[in-house]
């Protein structure tokens, strides 16, 4: 066990985590330079394009150091805010972490929250300052930040460039010398932490784990403690660039198990694997059943594609257990699905994957958070849809999820950021100057407030400098109303929102304004109204088209003219008919892009 | 029933708005005329023996042809195709090409309808449009055409030109109707790519007339024409009783037509052909016995869509009996169903078994037609 090192990389998006991982794989000859594809760990196209690792992976490297062979398990962590629980489980599987900070950018919010998580789990932190080859590197300033943050010595910070290879040797040697080998008793009852799972179309669900205690052998009967399900360990092994089966894995090892599981929901990240015959006393702590917090309707643009959409979402769910869906129908949009996501970015990723991987043309409705309703009869109902709200007479209280939000920014933007967070019903909890011009603020905020236009606003007021991280803290009482949108007097269920009463008027007005921009003029005037119950709180009008006519249509014009009109017709077809009004798809997401 | 169109692709200069094919190099005129004659020899059976009811000389500038040449072309066509007893033969004339005796000669050639490109009665606007003539020349041409014995005279007017007001349009119409014209084609300016106006628009130097002004001009146009006893028989066309253009109507009624000359279009009921828009290529191909054209086969639905598109622009509208007999019950029902909402909105009328756009509907006819097109 003393020749194993389990570690992860903590870094902000674009700070060079993937490039650094590539260098490590190259250095240890885990990947042949010949078929080296940059950023090997991000193996979804989408991830590579966005530069964020959506789902974590793990890879084992072998490395000779002072005459001894070491096994280095790099456990990759998902790089964005909606997956903080998954990050915590990956961190729990490690004994050390490379803290990678971009020498040109300094520390960002996500880095800090992940770092805190790593420190909490007792990980050895190796500070690395990346992109030292860049002319805009500010090493002294960034070193100050790192020293302030983790209390290390300046000379402990490794100056590196994943691009040029600078500092990689030192990183390798410190991984071996500084990070402790895993502890654990190979003879104790089996306790293995599941930190990730992937779907393989031939083998089913493959779970990734780290053994805390005990030993596992192929074909043993194992049990997942939290779900209670039992499986035969058909195949176990370690993760190189490809899976390599092994007969035995022991305490400290990182590996995978294939056991004929077909449904991703059976493998819960954070669960503990033990033996059926000789179970452990208790599961590894920290398990949480992560529930989606943001819900939105996803509808096929073409109603005939409903079954295809179902099949596509099912496939996505196979390797993304945090995605949930149930069928729902909307008067405006027909048949579709109510989908649950961890957060807004997760939702965007799913939408994009539906488009790219499955070529599905979908309409996504206004998202909302998961509300908890206490009824007068003492029941608790989770409400995922404005139309699912019980009649107001039966509601005793509504609660909404709250988050702990953390923003790090240059201090010159602090004023605007505070104002934004307070406008979004945030309560400031803490404010810390990381350096003289970088400040970290923390807020308690309703999750619903970041669902609408929070990221974009934060980015624009801080000129892109502010970074943001959050985690869910619990539920609090909410004063909500249902805001409906009517087009020519007809309610559009897909545009209804549950919203904080104090924001309803302003929100309704802005919704109407935005819809006026998005709904093309038609053959008659269109009244756009926002209403709370029977009360109209805002109104806009889309004036009718006054003139749309071609002057000439003779022999030579007929073909060309017909083609133009066919195109015009296609444009109309892409819209949804609501009552007599044609509504373009993007109108259903208008709410997210309010100015 | 059939029509023949002859494209004369020569102009002395280009107008700012026009995107019809033409060149300013006159030297190929004789070669072109020979090629047109040759083309009609290559395609004698295109009209499948249908009686030719109309001939139309368009351009370009047909009035750059000698009347004798026009006479030769007409008599040649009459030898090759069966003509009706009273064909409508139209010749487009630019006011600045008119001279004493021209219309007498054209009449002798067999031409019985003149379409005069007046465009505007305001000299400043005429220059802006890139026209070579002035209002005085238009007046002289109109005096002359009636004096020299051609009764059926159409005038072209352009409105919706940047800076033009409804009062300007009214003045143009009144000046036109001061002459005993029988027909008016009034076109709203369309800024086309590849024209001088198109380039100005791209460079932000041309601001198109706003929708409200355009709409009020369109209603004023209809009103003034009605007051002068004109029938508004197509979006841009008005005629005195008995003077509706038979040639243009045939385009909208899916009558077959043969187009001769570069860029000319032909239609035989099932397909469309259009000749290359290049005089040299055209002449060369024809001289080696080939028709240099592209071709589009029309399936049944496309023919239907073209019928909807062209017929709704006219006062005759969609003939539902024709749709049911010539196409099928399904398309008939499709139209009847969809028309319901337009009738409710006052955009369409159902008269016996026809669907006709109201004045209000005509103003947004593209919008309505696009919706009515059947799926391929």
Coarse shape of chain A: globular
Q: Tell me the distance between the termini of chain B.
A: 29 Å
SS summary, helix count of chain A: 13
Q: Widest sheet of chain A: strand order?
A: 11-10-16-7-8-15-12-13
Estimate the global geometry of chain B from the Cα principal axes.
globular
Q: Rounded to an integer, what's the Rg of chain B over CA atoms? A: 21 Å
- The Cα radius of gyration of chain A reads 27 Å
Biggest pleated sheet of chain B: 9 strands, mixed
Q: State the helical fraction of chain B.
A: 40-55%
Uncertain runs of chain B are: none
Distance between the termini of chain A: 57 Å
Helix content of chain A: 10-25%
Assembly type: heterodimer
Describe the model:
- The complex is a heterodimer of chains A (595) and B (376).
- By secondary structure, chain A is an alpha+beta fold.
- In chain A, 25% of the residues lie in helices and 35% in strands.
- Chain A is built from 13 helices and 34 strands.
- In chain A, a hairpin with a 3-residue loop joins strand 18 and strand 19 (334-341).
- The model of chain A is unreliable at 46-56 (pLDDT under 50).
- In chain B, strand 1, helix 1 and strand 2 (52-59) form a beta-alpha-beta unit.
- Chain B is α/β, with parallel strands linked by helices.
- Chain B has 15 helices and 15 strands.
- In chain B, strands 7-8-6-5-4-3-2-1-9 form a 9-stranded mixed beta sheet, sandwiched between helices. A 3-stranded antiparallel beta sheet of chain B has the order 10-11-12, with no helix packed on it. In chain B, strands 13-15-14 form a 3-stranded antiparallel beta sheet.
- Chain B is 41% helix and 22% strand.
- The radius of gyration of chain B is 21 Å and the shape is globular.
- Chain A binds chain B through residues 522-524, 545-556, 558-559, 561-562, 565-566, 568-569, 572, 580, and chain B through 5, 20, 187-190, 211-212, 214-215, 218, 235-236, 248, 251-252, 257, 259, 263-267, 272, 274, 296, 302, 305-306, 309-310, 313, 341-342, 345, 347, 362-371, 373, 376.
